């Protein structure tokens, strides 16, 4: 509004100047071109140099419903992608911590299985206390892993919904970006899952080995007990 007022005032000034210049009682014909040039030069200088008479023409921003919906859809896809990236990182770290805890438990149980029959009761009790503590840590890490996994699944669903909304509203590029983010997140989590599955498999194998060693040790103890029984108790009356 201020610019328009300045432009109107300047235009009025130029019109007044023109009337004064061209209403002289004794016009000089051969000087008319000179005065005309002066007027045109003044107009140009005022318009270009000072900018007082220039009327600004700014491009009107598109505020239609479709445009505003596309912008909102883009914001939603950006927020959902951020949510997905954070939950993906948390889940991968949780899976890694769980896998480490399981591998530690596997090492302890292998050590115990290899030492069956060679430990004193006090040593066996001590190592069992360590194994029980490590099993509790594995359960805690598993709970944390499952909690982040549930949040991550919700984040994937949210991104899929946001991508669909962006596509239907005309924000195709935002939709494509979210789909790409989903694929990357799923690939990263699948790699982490492989580590946890490998750890679980080794834990199951170690448990089977431990059971077999304990069974062998029990048979060995029974054999030793039979050998220690005096012959007099083995004879029939």
TrEMBL record:
Subcellular location as annotated: Mitochondrion
PANTHER family documented for this protein: DIABLO HOMOLOG, MITOCHONDRIAL, DIABLO IAP-BINDING MITOCHONDRIAL PROTEIN
A Gene Ontology cellular-component term: mitochondrion
UniProt entry tagged with the keyword Transit peptide: yes
Family named by the database record: Belongs to the Smac/DIABLO protein family.
Chain spans, region Disordered: 218-237
Assigned keywords, A-Z: Apoptosis, Mitochondrion, Transit peptide
GO BP, sorted A to Z: intrinsic apoptotic signaling pathway in response to oxidative stress; neuron apoptotic process; positive regulation of apoptotic process
InterPro entries: Smac/DIABLO-like_sf, Smac_DIABLO
Domain of life: Eukaryota
Record keyword Flavoprotein present: no
Protein name: Direct IAP-binding protein with low pI
């Amino acid at each position: 509004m201020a610019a328009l007022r300045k432009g109107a005032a300047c235009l009025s000034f130029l019109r007044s100047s023109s009337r004064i210049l061209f209403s002289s009682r004794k016009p000089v014909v051969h000087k008319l071109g000179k005065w005309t040039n002066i007027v045109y030069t003044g107009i140009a200088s005022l318009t270009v140099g000072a900018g007082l008479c220039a009327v600004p023409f700014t491009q009107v921003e598109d505020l239609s419903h479709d445009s505003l919906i596309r912008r909102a859809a883009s914001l939603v896809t950006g927020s959902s992608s951020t949510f997905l990236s954070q939950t993906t990182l948390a889940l991968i770290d949780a899976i890694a911590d769980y896998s480490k805890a399981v591998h530690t438990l596997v090492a302890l149980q292998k050590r115990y299985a290899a030492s069956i029959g060679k430990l004193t009761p006090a040593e066996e009790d001590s190592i069992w206390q360590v194994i029980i503590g490590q099993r509790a840590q594995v359960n805690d890490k598993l709970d944390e892993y499952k909690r982040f996994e549930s949040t991550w699944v919700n984040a994937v669903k949210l991104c899929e919904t946001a991508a669909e909304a962006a596509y239907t509203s005309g924000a195709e590029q935002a939709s494509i970006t979210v789909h790409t983010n989903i694929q990357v997140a799923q690939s990263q989590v699948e790699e982490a899952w492989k580590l946890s599955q490998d750890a679980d498999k080794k834990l199951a194998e170690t448990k089977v080995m431990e059971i077999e060693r304990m069974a062998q040790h029990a048979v060995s103890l029974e054999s030793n007990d039979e050998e220690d029984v005096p012959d007099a108790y083995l004879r029939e009356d």
